[in-house]
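Please check both lines for our workbook:

___
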Amino acid sequence: MNLSEVTERISQKLEAKGAQPDRQKIESRLHRLIEEFGVNAAEAERTVTADLAREHNVTGVGNTSTELRPISEIVPGEWVTIEGKIVALTPPVSPSIAQTGIIADSSGAMRFVTWTRANAPAMEYGHWYRIESAVVDEYKGAPNLKIHSGTTISQMERDAPLLPSITPIAELKPGVGSVRAKVIQDWEVTHDRMLQTGLLGDETGTIKFVIWKEENKDKLDLDAVYNIFYATVDEYNGRLSLALNTAMYITDEGDIEVGRSETEARGALVHVAPGSGLIKRCPVEGCNRTLSRQNYCPVHEIQPEFRYDLRIKAVLDDGVRARNVLMQRDIVETLAGITLEEAIQIAETNPLGMDEIFYRIRNAVLGRYYTCSGNEFGGRLLVNSCTPVTFEPAELAALLNRAGGEAA
């Protein structure tokens, strides 16, 4: 984007209304929104135009998007006005952020962030607000409302109850979601800050959940059914998970027959992709992204206190369809016959380092036949179980005979 061209365009619009804007100020504001806050270029132009129009007391310049929009219809790249209730507030992760949380209306909910430089009034939990001229971008694959210096926030005298819409687990997507689910597994925690983690299920499938240690947060009971409102739905390594720290959860007296919406595929592993074997993950709470060889996280930068993990990214081919598959540590350890601890020790003492583990795992699984089952997400089978296929001479003979008969 050429900032000079946009600056000139904004200046001409304001000058046509009799204003005398400062071009340097225009360009500086554009740069800040785009480079520092990651605002879409078109939205940055509308923001600066609207801000300066108010400062110079002129009308008819740009688009302030005062039309009220339901939250469920908002998509990244828009400039919106909404009315909603603050249903969760979360601690800011950076000094540049003044406030973060979840805002909801009768149609849905979404995360929001207020920048410190916006000097916006703090919003209170449980209150309704009208938010005008906010920018919508994308955060972790979901729409995210950004409140900046051009946004107007007005508290509303409203106390309407909200009835969150329950979403089947199989239909969840990154963002904010409410579910009715049963606790079917309670796992051992792997992080000092973690209160509880495990597996939730409903009639359509299952999903991992996590609760981080926080005041007034309680554990869920195994085999109990809960209505969980406004949980954060995140995606890590192709898998969705629910973080319940933003959520309110209430026990339900009913029961749920948990369904397993899994796909089964059988074939040969014909390719083991780079990024398989021993990998490093970001240790920052809630991140878990794979680090580069230089311990670099694309979000949290250099992380010397990384943690190791095992995985396999491969292609499973049944002769008709080739599927991308992703296997996590427990499956890798079983198929490759090596534990994470053993892999770490080998990598730290072998001249090839982590490459040695890649070669060992690749040699252990490449070309062999497996039956894999799991959930398909984003064009990839996320493997929950994988069993080696035993060679059956009689089955092979039957296939050859059938093929010979068809050829005749």
Q: What stands out?
A: The chain has a mean pLDDT of 85. The chain has seven helices and 20 strands. The CA atoms of residues 369 and 391 lie 9 Å apart. Residues 71-156 form a domain with the OB fold (Dihydrolipoamide Acetyltransferase, E2P) fold (CATH 2.40.50.140).
